[in-house]
């Protein structure tokens, strides 16, 4: 039986991770008691006893845990932003390319993608790999997310009965074009220029839709060509589905919360032969966080890739 240590399980990702692993009979999952969670010695001891250590921590604390893990044999899956662009870490998006699963299987250190970045990567990487988009491409990205993506602090703000009326409407943020996922988005998709990024948080807890608009005239493809690229790229993937606008949005509306509680991602290709909107829909704490972490863990342990996950 494999031993799994969750370091910092009180955040939203950590809590969802616990839920995903709770029913697994092939795993022994453990955490430190509250009074020992900040003890470096206790954390190092726990990591030394674990086959896999999940880091559900702020960036600085995650870096500290990695240092503490030195000299142990534990393999680390980090859900923070700290190591997503590091050359020494494997990016935890198995669907990235045909070699990525094998890299994750053999990795000692895996960085779980960010939620916005997961949607953006799912949309842009196939177009980069097939040459439709160049590394110099100028892009924009709009992302609407539930408030759980902001962690426990933001959840408390939104669920406070005495909250300000500002919370009643969608709120755009990262107005200075500085967002912690932007370096990751550029690094993974091999983009020289960061996209103009417009993230918005709204008054629903879970779910998100990440959209990228494209002018097709200069790309040499029409809408059906574009959809076919995604169909071919993800044709063997169980956790990523490609839809057209009629099946994804029969009423003309795409909802952000259709996949709440699930660990898959849907890509919607919509528009016309002049202009297209690509949308990735997912649960921000599913395929956008804890679901992706469990998928990577399964690969690293040689278990069935989607054990403990919900795809349908």
Question: What would your notes on this structure say?
Answer:
The chain is α/β, with parallel strands linked by helices and 312 residues long. It folds into two domains: 126 residues, 3-Layer(aba) Sandwich (Rossmann fold); 170 residues, 2-Layer Sandwich (Dihydrodipicolinate Reductase, domain 2). The chain has ten helices and 13 strands. The strands form two sheets. It has a seven-stranded mixed beta sheet with strand order 8-9-7-10-13-12-11. Strands 2-1-3-4-6-5 form a six-stranded parallel beta sheet, sandwiched between helices. A hairpin with a 3-residue loop joins strand 12 and strand 13. The mean pLDDT is 94.
Characteristic terms for this protein:
312 residues; alpha/beta; Rossmann fold; Dihydrodipicolinate Reductase, domain 2; 2 domains; seven-stranded mixed β-sheet; six-stranded parallel β-sheet; 10 helices; 13 strands
């Amino acid at each position: 039986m494999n031993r799994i240590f969750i370091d910092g399980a009180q955040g939203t990702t950590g809590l969802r991770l616990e839920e995903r692993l709770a029913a697994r009979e092939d795993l022994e999952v453990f955490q430190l008691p509250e009074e020992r969670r900040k003890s470096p010695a206790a954390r190092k001891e726990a990591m030394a006893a674990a086959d896999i250590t999940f880091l559900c921590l702020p960036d600085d604390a995650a870096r500290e845990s990695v240092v503490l893990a030195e000299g142990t044999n534990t393999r680390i899956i980090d859900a923070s932003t700290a190591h997503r662009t590091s050359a020494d870490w494997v990016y935890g998006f198995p669907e990235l390319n045909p070699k990525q699963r094998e890299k994750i299987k053999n990795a000692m250190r895996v960085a779980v993608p960010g939620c916005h970045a997961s949607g953006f990567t799912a949309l842009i990487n196939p177009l980069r790999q097939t040459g439709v988009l160049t590394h110099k491409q100028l892009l924009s990205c709009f992302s609407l997310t539930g408030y759980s993506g902001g962690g426990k602090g933001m959840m408390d703000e939104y669920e406070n009965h005495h909250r300000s009326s500002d919370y009643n409407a969608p709120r755009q943020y990262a107005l200075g074009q500085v967002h912690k996922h932007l370096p990751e988005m550029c690094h993974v998709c091999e983009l020289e220029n960061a996209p103009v990024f417009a993230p918005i948080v709204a008054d629903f807890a879970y779910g998100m839709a990440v959209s990228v608009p494209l002018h097709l005239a200069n790309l040499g493809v029409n809408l059906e060509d574009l959809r076919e690229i995604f169909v071919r790229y993800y044709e063997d993937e169980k956790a990523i589905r490609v839809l057209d606008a009629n099946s994804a949005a029969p009423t003309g509306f795409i909802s952000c919360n259709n996949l709440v509680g699930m660990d898959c991602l849907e890509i919607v290709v919509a528009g016309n032969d002049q202009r297209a909107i690509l949308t990735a829909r997912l649960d921000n704490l599913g395929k956008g966080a804890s679901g992706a972490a469990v998928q990577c863990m399964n690969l690293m342990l040689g278990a069935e890739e989607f054990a403990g996950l919900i795809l349908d």
